[in-house]
Amino acid sequence: MFLVRKLMPLILTLLFVFNMGGAAVAAAASQPISIYLNGVKIKSDVAPYIVPKANVTMVPLRVISESLKAKVGWTQSTNTATISKGELKLMMKVGQKFALVGSKKVPLDASVQLKNGRAMVPLRFVSEQLGLVVTWYGSVNTIKLESKDGSSSLKGAWISTVYNLDWPSAASYGNAEQQKQEFTQMLDELQGMGLNAVFVQVRPSADALYSSKLVPWTKFLTGVQGQDPGYDPLAFMIAETHRRGMAFHAWFNPFRANVDAKTDGLAPNHVISQHPDWIVNANGKLYINPGIPEARQHIIDVVMEVVKSYDIDGVHLDDYFYPTDGKFDDMATFAQNNSSQIANLDDWRRDNINQFVKQLGETIHKAKPAISYGISPFGVWRNSSTDPSGSDTKAGVETYDDMHADVRTWIQEGWIDYVMPQIYWSMTLSAARYDKLVDWWTNEVRGTNVSLYIGHAAYKLGTTETGWNTADEIINQLKYNEKYPEIGGDVYFSAQQLRKNMLGIVPLLQSYYKVGVN
Fold this sequence. Notes:
This protein is an alpha/beta fold. The chain has 17 helices and 24 strands.
């Protein structure tokens, strides 16, 4: 289901982009087109362009093919281009409305063209034949090309905005230009490490880093909740991320109402102010009660406001469901909102989260099927001592029992596109070994249509916890992941530790990801 969902939007996107009409073509043609291949910007002495009548994007033949290690030939006497890779052989001729793929004729939307002495070929055709996945970011005229051989795996970083941890800095409050500069510098640094995606926290405390009709502006932009920062940070961040050929995932803290129990300073349209009956104080932190259907729908509405209004690549949730210790004052809600007559409180809580996860995914994909929807749960589902099918761990927290996150069901039912467990322990910590947890999660997704990405604890580098006295720990984890084809990528928490180059992690990542190596 996930594969179908991913391919169909790609096809629709290609049809839309490469068959644009009229004004859209003229507008696109007036701006330069940037191309990124597996996260690296492609340089060309002949700029890509759109053929007005055919509405087809043309790109230099040699640039694309050589980047993919394909052999290229050009016969001047017949104006014929050839591309070969493995058993594949393509032949295209100037003025000819078809290409030869082996001995088979395949129609072309536009013929090969010569421009400034360079052969230009239709991007969609070449991409399909050479095994590329194409994403078009129309607002910034950027094309992202990704190969399917693993070199385009997800390589991301979480960017926390709560407490101004990663961005923006508290010193930038009210200064839009400084915030913009900080963000673009961060993107450049992350991309320079080999990363190709960011997961940006757009809802830190039931508020927003964008102009919303449902929730107030976050205080982490100006120091005052509800105060307009003078620009649209989310629109800016998406544009700059896409301009670099990177993916932008909007990260939501679903049920966090506030980081503490203080209510002074909250905007009038904050959920705590408007719906105090939805709020539960759990250990000095305010939560939106997942047991109230209207509260769950409110959060779905908030997420969908972003989905419908912004060109994001994904919706990402963390594990902010119920508190980790399971202490939550919701007995009255249990009695009032239990139409299924679930007898056990814990089962009822899990059902609340299950309903939310399922409904949110359905709503997202109905509106925009191309958007990737995933969740990053705590790294231990259950210990084997609690459940024989659990992992060989002795963790003090279990996501199924404490956060009431029934991740196994989400995977088996295909409610999410990917799962990104936070495996925040080293290869040598006996209570929760990284390798054993990777083994367990890989087995959980095997045979399903749910992708697996791994969350890594960059924030533990240099701490006294077992195994984190060297940055080689991260590299060893990446190398261990190589044994599993089910693992589609890695994401680091968080950006600031990477940017600080803790224990020399940056050159190690650059070497592992072969940054600058053609």
